[in-house]
Write a structure and sequence with these properties.
With 329 residues, the chain is an alpha/beta fold. The chain contains eleven helices and eleven strands. It is 43% helix and 18% strand. A hairpin with a 6-residue loop joins strand 7 and strand 8. Bound molecules: nicotinamide-adenine-dinucleotide (NAD) and (2S)-2-hydroxybutanedioic acid.
């Protein structure tokens, strides 16, 4: 029985995500917050015949109430890309939005799990961590950057070239971050052995890394992935909720490689080096991150090792941009 707040609930992701969370039978309270249009979205979704109580919260004056007494906050607030933009181009606007929202969560529900969708995830998650540290409530096991869409794309894109594979059950660990070459699918460690040749691996990796661009291009100025993201966000939230109620669930997600996170050292040795954040397959439990699932070094291919090195260089810049912003703002 979980209380959930969605911040940015009236947006392209927010609306379908709110609907999917209303359908989640473990959710008893669903607080929908936005700076526009949220009363209509909440009224609409509140008629769906599940037991969750839906409430609308509009604008900064209602933010504190929206995030009071919650177990999980999901944040898809912020601007999306248009063709020609990178996710980093969103930093200027979204950094401040995420900072304000996380400050409110830290003050009103300091133990809530926080799942950040707003881009650039590689920087917004470090911003959130700094905000929580400044408020004295940072717990690295309860803060997540949502990278599930990369995992979802990996399963689906494999199915595009291998019709014998079931996209609903195939799991490909995706590590690193959430933008372009920071996204590193470990196809060698897929739940079903794939045995692709190197050309196929290169093409598939490139497609997974730049899957977001396919949608941005097709939407032609009307935004980025919303429906597949709502699906991915709801899947991640459901995994977290099931873990909170005692199940053991594994999902890749962008987390802090803190000293007390079991498995962090192994990921450093694999190529994360001194980075403070990295997307890794995480075993989730009642208190959030239980441990990082070991990725056997001997199974990683040379191609993947090089991709992790490239990702780590880019991530170092993204992480420090987020940390500097939070410290100076
Ligand atoms: P959108 O513009 O359709 O919706 C964003 C919503 O955020 C709007 O309703 C807007 O009013 C609201 N908002 C703006 N400022 C706010 C504030 N201060 N407080 C609360 N709400 C605020 O955009 P979208 O398509 O839903 O995308 C949202 C974000 O998610 C973007 O940054 C996008 O890049 C990101 N995204 C991430 C992933 C991922 O895999 N992590 C995937 C897709 C999109
Ligand atoms: C995605 O991967 O689809 C999102 O990060 C949105 C984007 O800007 O591509």
């Amino acid at each position: 029985m979980v209380s959930v707040a969605i911040l940015g609930a009236a947006g392209g992701i927010g609306q379908p995500l709110s609907l999917l969370m209303k359908l989640n039978t473990s959710v008893t309270k669903l607080n929908l917050y936005d700076i526009v249009n949220v009363p209509g979205v909440a009224a609409d979704i509140s008629h769906v015949a599940t037991n969750a109580q839906v409430k609308s919260y509009l604008g900064p004056k209602e933010l504190d109430e929206a995030v009071s007494g919650i177990d999980l906050a999901i944040i898809p607030a912020g601007v999306p890309r248009k063709p020609g933009m990178t996710r980093d181009d969103l930093f200027k606007i979204n950094a401040g939005i995420v900072k304000t929202l996380v400050e409110a969560i830290a003050s009103n529900s300091p133990r809530a799990m926080i799942a950040i969708i707003s881009n650039p995830v590689n920087s917004t998650v470090p911003i959130a961590a700094e905000v929580l540290k400044a408020k004295g409530v940072f717990n690295p096991k309860r803060l997540f950057g949502v990278t599930t869409l990369d995992v979802v794309r990996a399963s689906r894109f494999v199915r595009d070239i291998r019709s014998d594979i079931d996209a609903t059950t195939l799991r490909v660990p995706v590590v690193g971050g959430h933008s372009g070459n920071t996204i590193v699918p470990l196809l060698s460690m897929a739940s079903t052995p794939l045995e692709f040749d190197i050309k196929t691996i290169e093409e598939l990796t490139q497609r997974i890394q730049f899957g977001g661009d396919e949608v941005v291009k097709a939407k032609d100025g009307a935004g980025s992935a919303t429906l597949s993201m709502a699906y991915a966000g709801a899947r991640f939230a459901d995994s977290l909720i099931r873990a909170m109620s005692g199940e053991t669930v594994v999902e890749p997600t962008f987390i802090a490689l803190a000293a007390d996170v079991e498995g962090a050292n192994q990921i450093r040795e694999l190529g994360a080096g001194e980075l403070d954040f990295f997307a890794v397959p995480v075993e989730l439990g009642k208190e959030g991150v239980r441990r990082i699932v070991p990725l056997p070094a001997e199974s990683i291919t040379e191609f993947e090792r090089k991709a992790i090195a490239v990702a780590s260089d880019a991530l170092a810049v993204n992480i420090s941009t987020g940390v500097s912003f939070a410290k100076s703002a």
